[in-house]
Amino acid sequence: MRTLFHGGLAMLAFAANSVLCRVALRQELIDPAAFSTIRIAAGAAMLLLVGARGSGPFLPSRGSFLTSGLLVLYVVPFSFSYVVLTTGTGALILFGCVQITMLLGALRSGERIVPAQWAGLAVALAGLVLLALPTLATPSLPAALLMALAGVAWGLYSWRGRKSADPLAATTANFVGALPLVLIAAAAARGSLHFSAWGVALSAFSGAVTSGLGYVAWYAALRRLTGLQASVIQLGVPVLAALGGVIFLAESVSARLILATLLVLGGIALAVVGKERWMRRVAASAA
User: Fold this and answer.
1) What pTM, to 2 d.p., does this model score?
2) Packed helices 87-108 and 141-161: angle between N→C axes, nearest 10 degrees
3) Among 90, 145, 174, 261, who pairs with 85 as Cys (CB 3.0-4.6 Å)?
């Protein structure tokens, strides 16, 4: 139940991030470099504050700098590609690369994936494609490569999080270590910097709450998830983001959205519980 709670909380945070990015970047309330910088800075500040109220502030260790780099390689390319790609195209590239990265990691580590889990992954991916269809478009190559880089970086960031003994300490170290790197990226793009008060507020909320605290919940869930389970449940994020658009942005509900939601959630359920049930069935038949 604790894993379910942390995983669900993380998915809601990721979906909220998608909605916040859509509003801030698509409406040009802030540029991608400033959005990324404020997002990382606000996340680091929030996590240091939370850590200081516990056993003391957490600072990055030598081993966390690689993970910090992966965090920046996700946040910055994602923001820049988000303003160019359509929603559906971006979601397919991002989550497709996340799936491939984490599945390769699972197979390389010797994780056994049973047929029921492969079926769950296929059903959930079909739901994602159905959800993305109305806004699919041929992407520009640079934007597509940036989003693919973001997907691979996030997959690796998540994979490394499965070994985290202390999700709060690890996530704090990741954000603190990422801050100087994202400042370098912002300096390189200083000629295009622009922001409004509303854009800054959205970026700060994205960093402090739906990124910083959301990533702590994700790391907490990852400790008890297999590689395939961790990859597949993230396919629920575009569905939750679409539902968030209905609730907060007055977007319409369609039969396609309902069917896509059922496919994705059904596929996730099959992938998450499929292994245990499959192993029980195999054990019963062997007996």
Assistant:
1) 0.90
2) 40
3) 90
